């Protein structure tokens, strides 16, 4: 029997299974499960991680199988026992035996390793037991030790498959995380012959432009050929709603998660397919949250991180280092310690920064202005700039002032630099044949429904004029499509800005207002058949509530977000503000959440709660109560931003309705004020 097990065939069976155990534990489930657990810290998608993990795992499996199977006799047995013991230790260490080392995250602060001598001794004993176990089985069960180890290996592999599957199900937003990157590639490159430039300014209300024009009447001469439309209705009330609607024509109505809406909007046929079919080089410089992965195929400067060869190795290398840190014995962890902040440092230096108008303009001047090429017959460039959004840090000459400026200076600074870019077109003989749009994602007064809009068509050199035509920013896609084809009636609203001038004054226009806080977060749909678009003339015709207005039972361990998907908002009763896409601010005291739990396992004394804190606006005392019992008392400082809010919820305070009522109070504060910004939370059993 023993000789049979030493045959090459049986060595490959046993060695291959032990190799599969090692490969799956360290090279597959290690990085994948750690990503799912901590994906908020990482800028890349789950899909981006699959390629390097698959490659490394396949190579690892082949190499380990050969190493374990080819040596004869006793060496084969020793190697298999040793690798099995190491893998068992890795599995137990990563899944059950780690401690937080004080902070619980790799936040960049050095760990005082000498303070964990007792834990180190216990951890070393665990590892010694794991290493000794397969050798002990060999000594005691001469005939069946291989079968025992193979059954154990298969069982643990299946456990890991089940565990990862549950984590993925509970954190489905992980799979939906977008894997593209908006790069600065070709930002100032234009066509020799035909160009369309769109300057999309944040919150540039028509009244702000009116004030600027009054202070600078010479602008009408500078902008010769432009038409100012003063009866423009925005698509939405904030950038999260308005920008994707302006680009794709699709509207977010909270019937699906925001990330799913974005993905679908970019997968459907839109103006960028039309531009691409007509050989137009299209580049959009805006926040990546407005783009689905489908934009990679349609917009030249949007790159798929999963296909970036540099990111490919960086993602794999950093995740395996993180996996080793979590998996190796205590006394080896120092060799693999890293800060999760390191992940951000591996982002491409080509990434477009949406909060950097001064850098955008200074880079334009450093390059010497636009560069003109004959590589493509026509070009479309859309520049989404900060515009009139707070905080104001742009001077009237377009430079950055970290101490802050005023709204007037911010607006002047943006126009100062845009006009310099227009002057460059004039100096190079490209102005007359260029189409230029200067507009805003939305307004900033009343419902934020009145943006500014200036448009110069190709070949238009007439004097600056004003039009009262009933224009909608849903007309932007058709306007862009009209630059390359006459067949644009199915794009966006089906009307270009020029078409709108021929429209009847009772043209039907729509506007989508994002409003409400807490569980009342909603999109309100307004319609007007009038040329008037004031707050009173807009008629509310629909309200679309988050999750259809329903409150789902919470499944323990599920991570919910306060970001664009707002999956946490349905549980917020009071004190939580309106999300702006990357965080939700607690701005009331008390702030209350009611969370009905789907199921609470028996014999569990405490549930763990964790809130990820993006920012602290008020350093203040904070008390958190669960169903009336204090579960957290402390001060909101930078430590809370780094480590989040962690506390235990005793299960005996949860009633028969299985609802956890969390109340945040701030005894040092009175009235409503911005206190802290949250990005996610979860409640889980240890």
Could you provide a short overview of the structure?
With 686 residues, the chain is an alpha+beta fold.
Annotate the secondary structure layout.
Elements: H1 2-5, H2 8-38, H3 46-69, H4 73-97, H5 117-140, H6 145-170, H7 172-176, E1 180-182, E2 189-191, E3 194-201, H8 206-215, H9 219-222, E4 226-229, E5 232-233, H10 239-248, H11 258-267, H12 271-277, E6 280-285, E7 302-304, H13 309-327, H14 341-345, H15 357-367, E8 371-373, E9 378-385, H16 407-427, E10 434-440, E11 453-456, E12 465-467, E13 471-472, H17 476-481, H18 497-501, E14 509-515, E15 522-528, E16 539-545, E17 560-561, E18 572-574, E19 584-586, E20 591-596, E21 606-616, E22 621-626, E23 629-635, H19 638-643, E24 645-650, E25 659-665, E26 676-684
Parallel strand pairs: 2-8, 3-9, 3-10, 4-12, 5-13, 6-9
Antiparallel strand pairs: 1-7, 4-11, 10-11, 14-15, 15-16, 17-26, 18-20, 19-26, 20-25, 21-24, 21-26, 22-23, 22-25
Helix pairs in contact: 2-3, 2-4, 2-6, 2-13, 3-13, 4-5, 5-6
Low-confidence stretches: 103-109
Q: What's the tally of helices?
A: 19
Could you tell me the radius of gyration in angstroms? Answer: 30 Å
CATH class of the largest domain: Alpha Beta
Cross-sheet strand order for the largest sheet: 6-9-3-10-11-4-12
The share of residues in helices is 25-40%
The major β-sheet equals: 7 strands, mixed
Whole-number mean pLDDT: 88
Q: Might you state the CATH topology name of the largest domain?
A: Alkaline Phosphatase, subunit A
What do we call the CATH homologous superfamily of the largest domain? Alkaline Phosphatase, subunit A
- The helix-and-strand class reads alpha+beta
**Mass-distribution shape:** globular
Measure the end-to-end span.
45 Å
By CATH, the architecture of the largest domain is named 3-Layer(aba) Sandwich
């Amino acid at each position: 029997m023993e000789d049979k097990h030493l045959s090459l065939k049986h060595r490959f069976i046993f060695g291959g299974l032990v190799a599969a155990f090692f490969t799956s534990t360290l090279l597959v489930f290690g990085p994948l499960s750690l990503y799912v657990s901590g994906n908020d810290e990482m800028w890349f998608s789950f899909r981006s991680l699959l390629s390097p993990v698959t490659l490394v795992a396949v190579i690892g499996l082949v190499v380990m199988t050969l190493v374990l199977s080819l040596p004869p006799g006793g060496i084969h047995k020793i190697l298999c026992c040793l690798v099995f013991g190491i893998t068992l230790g890795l599995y137990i260490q990563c899944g059950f035996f780690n401690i937080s080392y004080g902070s619980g995250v790799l936040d960049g602060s050095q760990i005082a390793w000498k303070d964990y001598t007792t834990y180190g001794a216990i951890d070393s004993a665990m590892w010694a037991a794991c290493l000794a176990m397969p050798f002990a089985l060999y000594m005691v069960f001469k005939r069946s030790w291989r079968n025992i180890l193979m059954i154990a290996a298969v069982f643990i592999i299946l456990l890991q498959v089940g565990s990862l599957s549950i984590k993925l199900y509970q954190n489905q937003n992980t799979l939906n995380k977008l894997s593209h990157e908006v790069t600065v590639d070709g930002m100032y490159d234009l066509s020799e012959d035909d160009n369309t430039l769109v300057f999309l300014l944040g919150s540039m209300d028509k009244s702000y432009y009116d004030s600027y024009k009054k202070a600078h009447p010479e602008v009408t001469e500078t902008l010769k050929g432009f038409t100012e439309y003063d009866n423009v209705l925005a698509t939405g009330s904030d950038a999260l709603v308005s920008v994707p609607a302006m680009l794709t024509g699709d509207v977010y109505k909270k019937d699906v998660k925001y990330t799913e809406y974005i993905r679908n909007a970019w997968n459907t046929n839109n103006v960028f397919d039309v531009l691409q079919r007509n050989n137009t080089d299209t580049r959009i410089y805006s926040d990546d949250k407005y783009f689905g992965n489908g934009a990679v195929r349609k917009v030249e400067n949007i790159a798929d991180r999963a296909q970036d060869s540099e990111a490919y190795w960086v993602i794999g290398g950093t995740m395996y280092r993180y996996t080793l840190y979590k998996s190796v014995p205590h006394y080896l962890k120092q060799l693999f310690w890293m800060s999760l902040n390191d992940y951000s440092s591996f982002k491409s230096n080509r990434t477009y920064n949406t909060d950097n108008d001064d850098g955008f303009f200074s880079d334009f001047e450093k390059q010497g202005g636009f560069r003109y090429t004959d590589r493509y017959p026509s070009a479309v460039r859309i520049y989404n700039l900060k515009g009139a959004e707070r905080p104001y840090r742009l001077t009237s000459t377009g430079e950055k002032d970290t101490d802050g400026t005023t709204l007037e200076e911010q607006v002047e600074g943006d126009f100062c630099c845009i006009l310099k870019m227009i002057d460059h077109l004039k100096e190079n003989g490209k102005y007359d044949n260029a189409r230029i749009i200067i507009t805003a994602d939305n307004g900033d007064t009343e419902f934020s429904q009145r943006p500014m809009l200036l448009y110069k068509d190709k070949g238009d050199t007439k004097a600056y004029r004003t039009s009262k035509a009933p224009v909608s920013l849903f007309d932007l896609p058709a306007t862009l499509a009209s630059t390359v084809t006459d067949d644009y009636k199915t794009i966006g609203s089906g009307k270009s800005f020029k078409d709108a001038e021929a429209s009847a004054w009772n043209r039907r226009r729509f506007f989508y207002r994002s409003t409400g806080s807490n569980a009342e977060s909603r999109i309100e749909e307004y319609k007007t058949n009038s040329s008037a678009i004031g707050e009173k003339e807009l008629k509310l015709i629909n309200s679309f509530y988050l999750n259809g207005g329903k409150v789902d039972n919470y499944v323990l361990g599920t991570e919910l977000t306060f970001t664009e998907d707002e999956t946490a908002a349905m549980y917020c009763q009071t004190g939580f503000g309106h999300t702006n896409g990357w965080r939700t601010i607690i701005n009331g005291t008390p702030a209350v959440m009611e969370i009905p739990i789907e199921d609470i396992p028996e014999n569990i004394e405490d549930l763990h709660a964790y809130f990820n804190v993006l920012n602290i606006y008020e350093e203040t005392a904070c008390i958190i109560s669960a169903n009336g019992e204090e579960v957290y008392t402390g001060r909101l400082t930078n430590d809370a931003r780094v480590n989040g809010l962690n506390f235990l919820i005793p299960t005996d305070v949860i009633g028969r309705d299985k609802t956890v009522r969390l109340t945040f109070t701030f005894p040092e504060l009175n009235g409503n004020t911005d206190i802290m910004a949250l990005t996610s939370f979860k409640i889980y059993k240890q």
